[in-house]
Amino acid sequence: MGHWRVVIETRSPAATSRDAFEVTPAPAPGTERAVLAQLVTGIHPGAVERSHVDGRSVFDDGAREISARFEPGDGGGDTPGPAQETLFDT
Asked: Which terminus, N or C, of the chain has the lesser number of Cβ atoms within 10 Å?
């Protein structure tokens, strides 16, 4: 599956933000939805999944709408950063 990143977009009445997180290793095929949900609810504990269509999950968290999807990463390095090492530890 190569290098992948998760793109999370958060929209609220006051602002919109976009964050991208490199995913190392890539999720196993068929687990993408669960990985998106785990990542979003880890960052936004009150988020509830509203839909998942064409690889894009949409969550509601109060007045915020949060969307998450995978996209090809740039493969900028073989070693994940410290935040990623702890983010995906099981």
From this structure: C
H or E element at residue 86: helix 82-87
DSSP characters for 16-78?
Answer: EEEEEEEESSPPPTT-HHHHHHHHHHHHSTT-EEEEEETTEEEEEETTEEEEEEEEE-----S
Positive or negative, the Cα torsion across 70, 25, 30, 58? negative
Tokens for 62? 């109060």
* 3-class DSSP assignment, residue 7: strand
Tokens at residue 49, please?
Answer: 């999944």
At residue 43, does pLDDT exceed 60? Answer: yes
More confident of the two residues 87 and 7: 7
Q: 3-class SS at 4?
A: strand
Question: Which single residue is written with the structure tokens 């950063």?
Answer: 81
